[in-house]
Predict the 3D structure of the following.
Amino acid sequence: MSIQRVRVKSSAGLYPVYIGDKLLPTVLPKHLPAKVPVAMLVDEGVAALPLTTDLFHWLERRSSRVVRVRIPAGERSKSIDEYGRVLRQLAGAGMTRDGWVLAVGGGVTGDLAGFVAATFLRGLPLIQIPTTVVAMVDSSVGGKTGVDLPEGKNLVGAFYPPQAVLADLRWLQFLSPVEKRAGMAEVLKCGAIADSKLFASLAKGAPRSMAKVVKRCVEIKAKLAGEDEKDLKGKRALLNFGHTVAHGLEGILGYDGLRHGEAVAIGMAVAAHLSVKARGFKRKTAEKLKAAIRAQGLPVTHPELRWDRLSTWISRDKKATSEGIRWVLLRKIGKADLVSGVAEKKVMAALEEVREGRPAKG
Ligand SMILES: NC(=O)c1ccc[n+]([C@@H]2O[C@H](COP(=O)([O-])OP(=O)(O)OC[C@H]3O[C@@H](n4cnc5c(N)ncnc54)[C@H](O)[C@@H]3O)[C@@H](O)[C@H]2O)c1
């Protein structure tokens, strides 16, 4: 498989995202200096995989020292407590200012490790090595790092671009089918907001080439995040299609009732219904979008889709401003906008339709 490269613009300059296999022997040495201390923050779910052990031994041979920190699997690790524990482990191990941080894992590890890299000793250079679909197509790119609070998801963090991202597709063979499916929600999202061709290819089910799908999603993310790094111009926020309700659901369920991708799938169904009511999105297309979500083996409804339960969480969403909630809605597949001032009764009606499995009404 050839190695593809997408470049991402950030305030710190351009950085590359590599997509392919066998990136370790070819690409990593180009970005990680030899003979420096390395903190390898690794997802517990991948720590024992042979690819990870090979990486660790390679680092041990090449670096002045390697501090390996295991991140317990699951969203609960994106917490202030875990963040503090990792910082203290690095301090206790005597990590110095010439050190580098490697984040090896899914979005949870990447977000947490990125925030550690952004803040430990006021910032150490970071390389993201994503190992899930979500992390490859989304979370490792764009420099958003951070942790959750009990009050809401991603409420604390920093914009901290990595030096490089290495999306080695070999990791994906070890992912459980359920995690793979959850990751496809973010891929569908990319198609829904920015690429009708990608969307059409996914409507049929599993994609034929993950390399192509990952590359296309990285290109979309690179463009939106590159034009709006700090999420101030309403461009990057489009990547949050489906996420307003998803974050609310995740919060209600204590961050471990649904996988992030599953929550996004349900959130996209609600956003599609709301788009019909508020943006003239065609009812037939909303049904097509839900069929595509189902074709990826993902859910399109949930019993907790109730305004009385979700409203507090939704108003704390990071897309909310002092003017209220901003929704990412579709005019058609591939065309999304950030919309404020959507009437509460439309939101309530969309939630009810999706909860009860009814078709979208205009
Ligand atoms: N920073 C961003 O821009 C951004 C964007 C999207 C999502 N996110 C965040 O990403 C997180 C979700 O990421 P995720 O879906 O990758 O979940 P995750 O990090 O929790 O990983 C999912 C599970 O897969 C396991 N795993 C990881 N790689 C594996 C592999 N190769 N083989 C076998 N098991 C493996 C993990 O141990 C975990 O149990 C959320 O916290 C979300 O907020 C951030």
